[in-house]
Specification:
The protein has 341 residues and is an alpha/beta fold. The protein folds into 2 domains: 24-114 and 223-276 and 284-328, Vaccinia Virus protein VP39 (Rossmann fold); 127-220, Putative methyltransferase TM0872, insert domain (DNA polymerase, domain 1, Orthogonal Bundle), CATH 1.10.150. The chain has helices spanning 24-31, 48-55, 67-72, 74-79, 114-118, 143-149, 152-163, 168-181, 187-197, 210-220, 223-237, 251-264, 296-301, and strands spanning 38-41, 59-64, 84-88, 103-109, 238-248, 284-286, 292-293, 309-315. Strands 1, 2, 3, 4, 5, 6, 7 and 8 form an 8-stranded mixed sheet that branches. Helix 2 (48-55) links the parallel strand 1 and strand 2 (59-64). Helix 11 (223-237) runs parallel beside helix 12 (251-264). The structure holds S-adenosylmethionine (SAM). The site of S-adenosylmethionine has 21 residues, from helix 2 and strand 2.
Length: 341
Amino acid sequence: MVANPGGGSTDAGGGPVRHIPVLLFEVLQALQPAPGKIILDGTFGAGGYTSAILAAGADVIALDRDPTAITAGQEMVAAHGGHLSLIHSQFSDLASHAPEAGLDGVVLDIGVSSMQIDEAERGFSFQKNGPLDMRMSASGVSAADVVNRAKVADLIRIFHFLGEESQAPRIAHAIEKKRTEKPFETTRDLAGLIEIVTPRKMKDKIHPATRVFQALRVFVNDELGELAQALFAAERSLKPGGRLVVVTFHSLEDRIVKKFFSDRSGRASGSRHLPVVHERAATFEAIGKQMVSASEAEAEANPRARSAKLRAGLRTQAAPGAADLSIFDLPNLASLGKLGA
Ligand SMILES: C[S@@+](CC[C@H](N)C(=O)[O-])C[C@H]1O[C@@H](n2cnc3c(N)ncnc32)[C@H](O)[C@@H]1O
């Protein structure tokens, strides 16, 4: 299910948008920051969670893969004299930033920030014309590279698995035809083609390019692989009694978090390839309700919160499980290789 339409948003004056932290109260309830605790915020963004955690008296190690988020956060670092360290890093690598004695909490708020969507030149939004980029880290393969160079069969797999786009073959073939005339350079180039190939119907709630843009963003940033590795890393880095809190915005990500906690509950194998149910020591116990979503009031005030889902677990004494990606049943997109380079 698509949650983040990539449409961006502006304030009443049409100016740049502030990122409103989603499920903040619920995150703090699950995380329980307090003086003397060390919490790792893997998705610093605009620092909304981080500043609330600091205000509760805990120290924060914050990460973000986006260099602009790190630059913008320097004022906050200076204001908190030693209680906040802000590191340019992917959250899959969070274990290497954890203190030897372990962390008291890890929080992840998966996805893009309002600032990323809002800046046309980052190329996340089909409603703002900009280069077809979508790289959160500002390095590596861009969305334009994928669209211009991936084999048509691979485009179909990306749109189908990562965007759940039912018109994936039709769109991929149209891209293949169009790019022989002129390579795709801008978000408009791509959104315009998708509008022609799959015109919007009256009943459609979302723009026809929504799913393809989501799929490209998830692929370009390896968002599912990053999340899966971060969950394993959090399991290795939390102290017994430490708390892992994850907020997701679409079903592919929520499924990964749900499968992880289910696998680590010690009850089920979590993989359909492993029919035998293994009894193992649980590495996480549930905290509160299995899944928490936004209150009506929050969803009304912040449309981004409507699709948010929070899951949380309390680390037990048991040794970490194996970092076995098969528990997630992720689509295998490894055959994409080097995009025909
Ligand atoms: C939804 S925003 C977080 C907002 C933040 N909780 C707040 O309250 O301001 C997500 C942030 O996570 C970052 N991010 C996404 N994937 C990441 C990854 N794999 N490693 C590190 N940061 C990542 C993005 O660059 C973005 O700044």
